[in-house]
Amino acid sequence: MVTTRRQLLSGTTAALLAPEVALADQDLAWAAAFIRRSGEELSAIIARADSVEARRQLLQPFIDRVVDVDAVARFCLGRFWSRATAGQQQEYLRSFHAVLMSAVLARVGNYEHSEVHVGVERPEIREGNVQVATVVERTGAPPARVIWVVNPNADNPRIIDLVAEGLSLRLTVRSDYNAFLTRHDYNIDALIEALRQQAA
């Protein structure tokens, strides 16, 4: 599962770093434009930041703005969210944010000197959300198809999932968390501690 998450996150970073995105569907053009703007901003952050700490400071508000991190975190915890205390929920969300940030920081450095091109296919509405399919071409790597799942709010779009090689990132993570909690007697504090260690 760790390898799978790395592949998904790798595809995520590559797709966001693309400088050009062609809009395929006028009705849902806002969703593709949102992905394009996010990619341009991420590219600018990488170009501007000259250290890991500088990137962290710039990336944190960016990630919080373009990704509905709290919603994804609650989805990944599944039925255990309602079983957690208010304190555990806060600590879990804080740890989830930290894990995501560490994963993004670990990936963006790999794309500093790579040429990345992304083509956008026709955005579609599926299961109440907008799916923006992209084909990522990166120097030295085979083309990869990444689907961005965006909430249907055109005024405040947020990424809530991505699908690469047919695998949903948030479903994969939820399966991992469920397996972990099953092995640890459903101890949410144990999961939070594991996330803290992962972020570190």
In CATH terms, the superfamily is: Tgt2/MlaC
Alpha carbon gap, first and last residue: 19 Å
CATH domain fold name: Nuclear Transport Factor 2, Chain: A
Shape estimate: globular
Extended strand count: 6
Largest sheet: 6 strands, antiparallel
Compressed to H and E, one letter per element, the order equals HHHHHEEEEEEHH
Q: How confident overall, as mean pLDDT?
A: 84
Rounded Rg: 17 Å
CATH class descriptor: Alpha Beta
Q: Determine the structural class based on helices, strands and strand pairing.
A: alpha+beta
Uncertain residue segments: 18-26
**How many discrete domains?**
1
Strand content: 15-25%
CATH architecture: Roll
Count of helical regions: 7
As a percent range, the share of helical residues equals 40-55%
Characterization of this structure:
It is a single chain. By secondary structure, the protein is α+β, with helices and mostly antiparallel strands. The chain has a single domain, classed as Tgt2/MlaC (Nuclear Transport Factor 2, Chain: A), CATH 3.10.450.710. Helix content is 55%, strand content 16%. It contains 7 helices and 6 strands; from the N terminus they run αααααββββββαα. Strands 1, 2, 3, 4, 5 and 6 form a 6-stranded antiparallel β-sheet that branches. A hairpin with a 2-residue loop joins strand 5 and strand 6. Helix 1 packs across helix 5 and helix 4 packs across helix 6. The radius of gyration is 17 Å and the shape is globular. The relative contact order is 0.19.
Defining traits:
200 residues, six-stranded antiparallel β-sheet, Nuclear Transport Factor 2, Chain: A
